[in-house]
Amino acid sequence: MQSLREELVERMARVVTEDGILEVFPGFFLGRSSQPTERAHSVFKPAFCVIAQGSKQVLLGEEVFRYDPGHYLISTVDLPIVTLV
Q1: Is the pLDDT assigned to residue 28 strictly greater than 80?
Q2: End-to-end CA distance of the chain
Q3: Which residues sit opposite 31 in a β-bridge?
Q4: pTM
């Protein structure tokens, strides 16, 4: 499993060579951030989020959701969130 994750990270790094978000196919985005992000308020659109490396935390109401290589995030409706990391 670890070798597959490392391969995913390597392949993504070849496509997304610097920090930011790239739409590689219509509706399919790859993102890269090499350092923690600032806390930000936004509306999370319906999505399936997979983290290849590192982790992310979002606040929905009073509940904190953390997703990382072992945990994915699915949103089926627009959600007002705060990104924490």
Answers
A1: yes
A2: 25
A3: 21
A4: 0.74
Q: How confident is the model at residue 85 (pLDDT cuts 50, 70, 90)?
A: low
> Is the model's pLDDT at 54 over the cut of 80?
yes
What is the average pLDDT score of the chain?
A: 91
d(CA 81, CA 27): 20
How far is residue 29's CA from residue 4's CA, in Å, rounded to a whole number?
A: 20
**Burial class of residue 59, CB neighbours in 10 A (0-12, 13-18, 19+):** middle
d(CA 77, CA 15) in angstroms, rounded, equals 28
Which string of DSSP letters, residue by residue, matches the chain? -HHHHHHHHHHHHHH--SSEEEEEETTEEEEE-SSPPPPEEEEEPSEEE--SSS-EEEEETTEEEEEBTTB-EEE-S-EEEEE--
Contact of 51 with 29, CB cutoff 8 Å: no
